[in-house]
Design a protein that fits this description.
By secondary structure, the protein is α+β, with helices and mostly antiparallel strands. It has one domain: Glutaredoxin, CATH 3.40.30.10. It is built from six helices and six strands; from the N terminus they run βββαβαααββαα. A hairpin with a 2-residue loop joins strand 5 and strand 6. The chain starts with 14 loop residues before the first strand and ends with a helix. InterPro entries: Thiol:disulfide_interchange, Thioredoxin-like_fold, Thioredoxin-like_sf.
Length: about 200
């Protein structure tokens, strides 16, 4: 869904964009050949659909085999009342080493029912942690905007931005292409930061 609240079905041609590999929630090996960055709003039904459609196969085929690391970047949309709060919960879970548990729980929620996430809620964070995580969330959204992202979910595979992938097969084909081309992350130069 776009930040304007309208659905978007346009698939953009890949655009190169370098994203730093930093302390943002991730699943999988740091040495994975392919880095998939997923810009998400934890309250977005399209993000939930994407996770439900692809995560189990993605995890089994690529993440658990060490080929892919899945990186989650916050892109809370302004019209989702709890999106920012859920991003705080995600960072809290990641700091505790419980992000995979959070990731499974958050996408199973009925929106507005946060009882299952209480162990990660913002009431358990110090003032310093709240500031640190809030800053990270704002920075992730700035990176997304600079990369041309306007809605969620948005996917970056080894520096190539795909705003929408229309099928699981197309996504996995893109991952296989990245693996076969031995296309590696170039984290020293970040084109996204130049626009911020």
């Amino acid at each position: 869904m776009t930040d304007t609240g309208k659905d978007s079905v346009i698939i953009h041609a890949p655009k190169e964009c370098y994203l730093p590999i930093d302390d943002t929630p991730k699943i999988g090996s740091d040495s994975a050949q392919v880095k998939i960055t997923l810009f998400v709003d934890y309250e977005c039904p399209y993000c939930s659909n994407l996770i439900h459609d692809v995560y189990n196969d993605l995890s089994k085929t690529y993440i658990k085999t060490g080929k892919v690391q899945l990186i989650f970047r916050d892109y809370p949309l302004s019209f989702h009342e709890n999106a920012f709060k859920l991003s705080l919960y995600a960072h809290s879970a990641y700091k505790k080493g419980e992000f995979e548990l959070f990731n499974k729980a958050v996408w199973e929620l009925k929106m507005g029912d946060f009882e299952d996430l209480k162990q990660w809620n913002d009431k358990n964070l110090s003032v310093d942690e709240l500031k640190q995580f809030s800053d990270l969330i704002h920075e992730n959204k700035k990176l997304g905007r600079a990369a041309g992202i306007t809605g969620t979910p948005s996917i970056v595979i080894n520096n190539l931005l795909f705003e929408k992938e229309n099928t699981k097969e197309k996504l996995f084909e893109s991952i296989d292409n990245a693996l076969s081309n031995n296309y590696s992350i170039q984290s020293k130069h970040n084109l996204c930061n130049e626009s911020i």
